[in-house]
Amino acid sequence: MKIAVCVKQVPDTWAEKKLRADDSTLDRESADGVMNELDEYAVEEALRIVEAGEGEVTIVTMGPERASETVRKALSMGADAGVHLVDDALHGSDALATSEALAKVLSGRGFDLILFGSESTDARMSVVPAMVAERLGVAQLTFAQKVTVSGGAITIERATDYGYDTVEAATPAVVSVVEKINEPRYPSFKGIMAAKKKPVETISVADAGIDQSVIGASAAWSAVVDFAVRLPKAAGTVVTDEGDGGVKIAEFLSAQKFI
Amino acid sequence: MKLSELPEYDDLRSGVRQICDQFPGQYWRDLEPDTYPQEFVTELTAAGYLAALIPEEYGGGGASLTEAAIILEEIAASGGNPAACHAQMYVMGTVLRHGSAAQKQEFLPKIAAGELRLQAFGVTEPEAGSETTAIRTKAERVPDGWRINGQKIWTSRAMYSDLMLLLARTTAVEQCAKPSDGLSTFLIDMRQATGITINPIKTMMNHNTTEVFFDDVIVPDDALVGVEGKGFKQILDGMNAERILIASECLGDGRFLLERSVNYAKERVVFGKPIGANQGVQFPLARAYAQLRAADFVRLEAARKYDAHLPCGEEANMAKYLASEASWAAANAAIDTHGGFGFAAEYDIERKFRETRLYQVAPINNNLILAFLGQHALGLPKSY
Fold first, then answer.
1. How far apart are the CA of A188 and the nearest CA of chain B, in angstroms?
2. Domain of residue B81, residue span
3. Based on the number of CB atoms within 10 Å of its own CB, is A68 exposed (0-12), middle (13-18) or buried (19 or more)?
4. Is there a contact between A186 and B15 if contact means CB atoms under 8 Å apart?
5. ipTM beyond cut 0.90
6. Around A206, how many Cα atoms within 13 Å sit in the side-chain half-sphere?
7. Of B14, B18, B48, the CB nearest to A190
8. Is the CB of residue B238 less than 8 Å from the CB of residue B245?
């Protein structure tokens, strides 16, 4: 089975993120880049599927040059090869443009299964997997907490608020995963050493046959007009309960228009 | 906090960090005073880091010494204590270089797989510290093997090891041309041997060190590693690797202490400004940084020479000397910067302060390094 895993480099979840003053996009220099956490689960699931049967896992990413660190990390976990779409023209792309670019990179490569983390920790929209599936014209199986591969069929448990739905589709298909699905492995020492020798194909927008007019900030369907730095937290109000604590809380909530 | 920019090792550093992140300061504090970090060692072993120096043909990582040095540095820089497991990395070197094909085939794959632990290295004795050739533990020929009697001290991790590499006298010193003759190395399977008693020694840091008694311990013929009588030379040529790796741990300690101190000095406001604005706080940190950078350059050069199979005794010794002095400078600056909080266990400064102090004394005393440099690098008369 030929599996692609789409991964994204995001700013470290715990870092204080900044926006750039010039074009209001994320200042990627302001924080360390890490692999989006949910994408690690997608990589792990792909490796488990291949280890239980056979096949190969290709890591696909779109992002600036340093996003290659994330590709290498996935290779050190055990993936076989990488494709890195890197081009200044992609800067400022929204979800629609991202899905268009990824679909162009993915199509024609014969993938049976395309895995995603169900959302990224920076944008948190959860829409790219579905958009990519739509653009490729293949089934979308999203929010998987369990994936079973049997012949040409993919069955997932789709996590819902009330439990899960069992959803099935024929390959090729797009699957996005949630963190309940597995426990991602650490890269081993041998994995890290082996990753240095694995092939990573670096391609541009032109190489991938992507129409320049549908990507980048100028093609985005929304624009950041203005932003402000979050105000520092003000000191809270401390009320000493002298038998009237309940009243004072009610007064506070009322003043803040909560009640 | 970084020292030299070495982008080719960034993946390795982040791989080690990913494991270390699961074992934060609280984990190491809870182990105090003397609990062995078994969970941490198990994880590192499973991910293949402790087998890094074992060649790939025996199932190891086939790493360069530079890579092994980066691994230990990063553990220390994360706040962890690599002393719990560093010997697993390099003690096997003597078996690798001098062991028989059968010994290598028998032990190295199991060590690489984490099935066998070779964490203990029995050399030092109560009456023989730096003067290794004065050891009294002796091994005598008996039918089908050797009988060992004697005592070792400061044998770290003996309680958490299956095997011990032991240095013992096999020919009385009076019958030898020089004191370094007549010593032999043995690989002892402590799970099978009888007559071994191990007593833990309480120390000021969590180091799991012990004293070990050998009372008529019988080991088979094939426990002898390499050539009878050549044991001293056989362990000596592993020493350069050990020096470089210990230097790397010091550099990691220094990075940890300095990073914590710099952050604290920026945030802690006294008399209306961050304390880091005061030269009395800033300069010791800057001095420690310069010392760490310098030690790092020498460490990398030592490792480069080692990996290129060039003589590196001088650089390896200087690396260990400079790095242990630099981490100690960082430790003192860290205590001064943190003030009272430097002594509070919760800040991990006092723990690192205790842990890094060891390396001016062990595995070789810094004075002995100076004596080595004076005599061999400068051609001065022997001073001891």
1. 4
2. 7-112
3. middle
4. yes
5. no
6. 1
7. B48
8. no
Residue type, A119: E
CB spacing of A186 vs B43 below 8 angstroms: yes
Residues of A in contact with B58 (CB under 8 A): none
The answer to whether B266 touches B337, Cβ cutoff 8 Å, is: no
Nearest to B86, CA basis, from B63, B119, B39: B119
Question: Cβ separation of B63 and A193 shorter than 8 Å?
Answer: yes
Q: Is residue B1 part of a domain?
A: no
How many contacts does A have with B, using Cβ atoms within 8 A? 43
Q: Please tell me whether residues B260 and B155 are part of one structural domain.
A: no
Nearest Cα residue to B163 out of B136, B182, B189, B125: B189
- To the nearest whole Å, the CA of A76 is away from the closest chain B CA by 9
- Give the number of other Cβ atoms within 10 Å of residue B191's Cβ: 9
Rounded Cα–Cα distance for residues A36 and B160 (Å) = 38
Which residues of B touch chain A, with CB atoms under 8 Å apart? 10-12, 14-15, 18-19, 43, 46-49, 51-52, 61-63, 67, 71
pTM (two decimals):
0.88
Rg (CA), chain B: 21
Minimal CA–CA distance to B356: which of B251, B242, B212, B214?
B251
**Can you name the CATH fold of A2-219?**
Rossmann fold (3.40.50)
Interchain proximity B11–A186, CB inside 8 Å = no
Q: Which residues have CB under 8 Å from A134's CB, separation 6+?
A: A99, A140
Per-residue pLDDT tens listing for chain A (259 residues): 999 999 999 998 888 888 888 888 888 888 889 999 999 999 999 999 999 999 999 999 999 999 999 999 999 999 999 999 999 999 999 999 999 999 999 999 999 999 999 999 888 899 999 999 999 999 999 999 999 999 889 999 999 999 999 999 999 999 999 999 999 999 999 999 999 999 999 999 999 999 999 999 999 999 888 898 888 887 787 888 899 989 988 998 999 888 8
Among B188, B210, B230, the domain-final residue is: B230
